[in-house]
Amino acid sequence: MVKINGEEKKRFCREHPPKKIIFEYPKNKMKDFIEKKGFHVENKFFREKEEERIESKLQTKLNFYIKEEAMEKILKHCKEMAIEGKEALGFLIGDVKYWGGEYSVVYDIATASLLSSSIYVRFKKEAFEEIFNKLDEIEYEYVLIGWYHSHLGYSSFMSKIDMETQIKYFNKPFHASMVVDPIKKEVKVFRLYGDECVEIPYAIFR
Fold this sequence. Notes:
Layout: E1 21-25, H1 30-37, E2 57-58, E3 64-67, H2 68-83, E4 89-98, E5 102-110, E6 114-116, E7 121-123, H3 127-136, E8 143-150, H4 160-169, E9 176-181, E10 186-193, E11 196-200, E12 202-205
Parallel strand pairs: 2-11, 3-5, 3-12, 8-9
Antiparallel strand pairs: 1-12, 4-5, 4-8, 6-7, 9-10, 10-11
């Protein structure tokens, strides 16, 4: 059985970071990437979510990579949920490697049944068994790199509730939170550094 809380790295793996980079944030504009892939959603009226936004500074060092297919799955999931006026949620699956420092790689995602609205999302009770079954089917040795969720038209940021989730379940240095807004065409990634929330650059590779 895979555990969510207290997830550990499986082994020490020294490997050069992915070389076939097709997108790098913040050098490139995610708006262009989303539009090119066709994963944007036409602007609709959604009630503004009144949440306390956690201030975050952008780190300069690139140490987070996501495979193109995984990013497409995330954007597709967020688009499909947004069309229904709902937020999306799922886990980031990958590995932690080393090359002049530690970096994370996302190869795939896992999600399941959700209780969701335009301002709220969480897994249904039965969802965790669905997710564990999906994770058990993965043939390679993996690490839960973090989680992703979407916002509907009020931009990508970490809220106070998001921070509480990150601190409780994803508090390792390699853990990350990806926040997607398919309406504003934004994708941002955040990590914890002590008690501080920091936005980090990321790269998409194939």
